[in-house]
C-alpha cells in the first residue's frame, strides 16, 4: 500500500536536482569529493528508476502508469502532472543509464568541477522530466530548462569555438521552443474548457485544419532537436566543441527528445494531421539518411563525422513513425534506444582518442592501434554496432523499420520501393565511411610526428568499464530484442491502431474485414483496395 502511493516519478525527477543544490556547500579542494558525490547521486537515481520499473510497471498496460497530479499554479491551470507508458519508460531508463555513465566519463574534469557536476545533476532531472511530464505547459518548461545546462557545459568546457557552438545551439533550440509554447496555448484554449493535460488534449478531437497548423508548429520545434535537415546545422558544431560527457548526453539523450515528442504529440495527439503529413516525414527521413551519410563520408574531423552519422541514423526514426505499422513504430522506438547507446559509446571513444592524440583530423592520425589496442578493439566493436552488424541492436532496429515500412499497406507499392531503395543507399554508405575511419586512425604505418610528441597510452579500467557497460545492452538487444520491445509493445499496438483509423482506406478496410469475419459462410480475404496515401 505504501509503495502504491509513493510518488516514484516525482522523486526520480527531483532527487538529482535537489542533490545538486548541496554541491556548493561540500568541503572539497581538488574536486574528488564532488565527483564521487555526483556519481553516487546519479547511481542511486538510476537504481531507483530500475526498482520502480521492475516493481511498479505493467508491460501489458498501454495506458499511463505511475500517474501523479498535483495542482501547482491553478490560475493558469499549471499542474505537476507526471506519468509513464511504453513510449516514455524505455527513454527514462536510457536517460538514467547514459547520464550516470556520463558522470563517470567526466572524471578527468578539473576546471570548475563544482559547477560542472551541478549542471550534470540538474540536467539529469530535467531530461527525465521531459519524458515523464503529462502537462503540456510543464513540458514546455522542462524542455526549456533542460537547455540551460547544455549551453553552459558547451560554453565553459568546450573547444576553441565553444561560444559560437553554444550560442548556435541555444538560438536554434530556444527558437524552436517558441513554436511549442504557441501550439500548446492554442490547443489548451481551443474549446470551452481550457486544459493543458496531454491525455485530455489527445482525445479532444480537433478539426483537421487546426491539427495541421499545430502539427506544423510542433514539427519545427522537434525537427531542430531530432534533428531533421535543414534544421540540423547546430549539431555538428555542438559536437565539434563538446567534451566527452556532454557528447554522451547530446547523442544519447537529447536527440531522442525530438523523436519522443514527435510520437507523443504529433502522432498521438494529432492523428488526423499525422495521416496527412506522414509521407512528408518519410521523405525527410530518406533525406536525413542519404544526405547526412554522404556528408559524414566527406568529413575529415572525427567528431563531425560521427555527428553526421548520428543525423543519418535518426532518419530511420522518422520512417518508422510514419509507417502506420506496429513493426515500423516499434522499430522507431528501438532505434532511439539503440542509437542512444551506440552514439554515446562512439562519442566517448572519440573523446578518449582525442585526449591521447590531441587531434581530431584523420589526416594527422594513423597506425595508433599498435600502441592503443584496447581503444582500437572498443572503437571497432562500437563502429560495427553503428553500421548495423547482425547481433547488434542497430541491426534489429533498422531491420524492423525497413520491414515495417515495406509491408505497410498505407502507401503505394511504387512509393515503398523507392523509399526502401533510397534508404538502403545510406545503409551501404555507413560501413564504408566507418570502416574507412577505423583504417585511417588505427591501421597503416604510424605517424612518427604524432607518436613522438604524444603519449599514446591505452585505455584505463574506467574507460573499459564505460564501454563494456554500453556494449552489454547493445549486444543483448541485438540477440534478444524482446527484452526491450516487450516494454512498449502494448502501447505501439494501441497507437498504430488509432493512426490507421485516421487513414480512410485503412479504416474502411478494417470495417470490411470485421463484416467478413462476422459472416461464417464467407471466406476471410483481406481487402486489396488502393492505398490512400500517395
Quickly count the domains: 1
Largest sheet: 2 strands, antiparallel
Overall radius of gyration:
23 Å
> Share of helix among residues?
over 70%
The separation of the N and C termini measures 53 Å
Structural class: mainly alpha
Gist of the model:
The protein has helices at 2-5, 8-20, 32-56, 89-105, 113-132, 136-145, 147-157, 162-188, 198-202, 208-225, 234-241, 244-267, 271-298, 302-321, 326-357, 373-386, 393-406, 413-442, 448-453, 461-479, 482-501, 504-518; strands spanning 65-73, 78-84. The protein has one domain (8-502).
Descriptive report:
It catalyses: a plastoquinone + NADH + (n+1) H(+)(in) = a plastoquinol + NAD(+) + n H(+)(out); a plastoquinone + NADPH + (n+1) H(+)(in) = a plastoquinol + NADP(+) + n H(+)(out). Residues 134-416 form the NADH:quinone oxidoreductase/Mrp antiporter transmembrane domain. Its EC number is 7.1.1.-. Residues 513-534 have low confidence and may be disordered. The protein has one domain. With 534 residues, it is mainly alpha-helical. A hairpin with a 4-residue loop joins strand 1 (65-73) and strand 2. The protein contains 22 helices and 2 strands. Helix 14 runs antiparallel to helix 15, helix 15 runs antiparallel to helix 17 and helix 16 (373-386) packs parallel to helix 20 (461-479). The chain has a two-stranded antiparallel ribbon with strand order 1-2.
